[in-house]
């Protein structure tokens, strides 16, 4: 088998990874992530696997307020990434060095009057807020009203700032790979939030690795309406022959029109 670990985690470039849905693709990606864990005190890339951490399904959302629905998708994804990154780092011996990181998180993100005093509590809050946006999105679709943010210790998460202090916490200057594996439908809103990161020049901190079956990533627009482009914004990795077969099928369909 090709050494996909070097090809995927070994470079900081954003990538779309094409392969048939199913266990084989998931096993390859999980194996790559397991072989490239998050580490501290050495400048080496680590990785996380996101399997089902997004807004799900395909819904008609045209009637919803654009600013609100894009904000929901962005915050849901940001909290998912930050929560998973910190969760994976808890197995490392970092609690003794966490005071500055927690101080920065409290100052930047935690509402006045509240305080998060340890990393485990912060992970719980990040996951809870991820789920709040996911569940709130469902409520918004059903009722047209998004639940109140009041009471949440952290309401919004800024990925760039989090990564700056996260890397200082780990004493690791490398990038971190975020593997998105679309094994079942992801909302077009979450795809745009993911594309938003793909279109940014943040490879020194976050390298997006988006895995899907060819033809099933329906939109390449980001949250601001910009189009992310192959070669310019991301590279391509082929896990099998599915992309070649998909291209042949599309060419055949066009010729038959």
Number of strands: 5
What is the radius of gyration computed over CA atoms, rounded to a whole number of angstroms? Answer: 19 Å
For the biggest β-sheet, the strand order reads 2-3-4-1-5
Helical percentage:
40-55%
Looking at the structure, what is the overall shape? globular
| Major pleated sheet | 5 strands, parallel
Class from helix and strand fractions: alpha/beta
| Run of helices and strands | HEHEHHHHEHEEH
Span between termini: 39 Å
**Beta content:** 5-15%
Query: What is the helix tally?
Result: 8
- What is the residue-mean pLDDT, rounded to a whole number? 93
The low-pLDDT segments are none
Describe the structure in brief.
This protein is α/β, with parallel strands linked by helices.
How would you describe this structure in keywords?
single chain, 257 residues, alpha/beta, 5-stranded parallel β-sheet, 8 helices, globular
């Amino acid at each position: 088998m090709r050494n996909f670990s070097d090809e995927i985690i070994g470079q900081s470039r954003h990538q779309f990874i094409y392969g048939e849905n199913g266990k084989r693709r998931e096993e390859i990606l999980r194996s790559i992530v397991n072989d490239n864990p998050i580490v501290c005190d050495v400048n080496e890339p680590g990785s996380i696997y996101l399997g089902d951490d997004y807004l799900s399904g395909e819904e008609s959302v045209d009637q919803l307020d654009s600013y609100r629905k894009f904000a929901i998708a962005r915050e849901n994804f940001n909290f998912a990434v930050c929560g998973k990154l910190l969760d994976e780092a808890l197995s490392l011996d970092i609690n003794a060095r966490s005071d500055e990181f927690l101080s920065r998180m409290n100052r930047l993100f935690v509402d006045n009057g509240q305080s998060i005093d340890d990393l485990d509590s912060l992970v719980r809050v990040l996951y809870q807020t991820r789920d709040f946006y996911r569940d709130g999105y469902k409520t918004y679709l059903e009722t047209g009203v998004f639940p109140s943010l009041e009471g949440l210790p952290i309401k919004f998460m800024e990925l760039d700032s989090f990564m700056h202090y996260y890397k200082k916490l780990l004493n690791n200057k490398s990038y971190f790979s975020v593997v998105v594996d679309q094994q079942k439908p992801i909302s077009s809103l979450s795809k745009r939030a993911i594309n938003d990161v793909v279109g940014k020049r943040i490879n020194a901190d976050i390298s997006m690795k988006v895995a899907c079956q060819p033809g099933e990533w329906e939109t390449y627009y980001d949250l601001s309406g910009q189009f992310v482009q192959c070669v310019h914004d991301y590279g391509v990795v082929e896990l099998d022959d599915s992309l070649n077969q998909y291209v042949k099928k599309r060419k055949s369909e066009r010729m038959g029109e």
